[in-house]
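queue> pop job 88
queue> type: inverse folding (structure -> sequence)
queue> payload:
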């Protein structure tokens, strides 16, 4: 069982910044992807960003140019730097890890609230 623990959420005003972190309890020795997803009240969970073992990244259009995903393999940690936050970014943010030959795992989430 792999545990993912997110942190860094909070309440900020529009235009502010937050940095989310997600720490995995172990290392994936195979090709893997770490991703961030979010779910706002009454809405479905949506993809936000991902990064893979080769540091290739992708983003949903709505956050391009504002969010940056990165990882620190030695610490089994992935980050999501969120700048120029908007009220529509308000959601619970979840981390997911996909590792070859292993089940995918989700964290418990960290709340991000952006006020106008």
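queue> result:
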């Amino acid at each position: 069982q792999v545990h993912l623990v997110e942190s860094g959420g909070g309440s900020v005003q529009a235009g502010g910044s937050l940095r989310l972190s997600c720490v995995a309890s172990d290392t994936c020795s195979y090709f893997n992807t770490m991703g961030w997803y979010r779910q706002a009240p009454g809405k479905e969970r949506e993809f936000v960003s991902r990064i893979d073992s080769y540091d290739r990244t992708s983003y949903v259009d709505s956050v391009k140019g504002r969010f940056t995903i990165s990882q620190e393999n030695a610490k089994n940690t992935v980050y999501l730097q969120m700048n120029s936050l908007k009220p529509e970014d308000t959601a619970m943010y979840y981390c997911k890890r996909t590792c070859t030959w292993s089940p995918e795992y989700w964290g418990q989430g960290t709340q991000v609230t952006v006020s106008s």
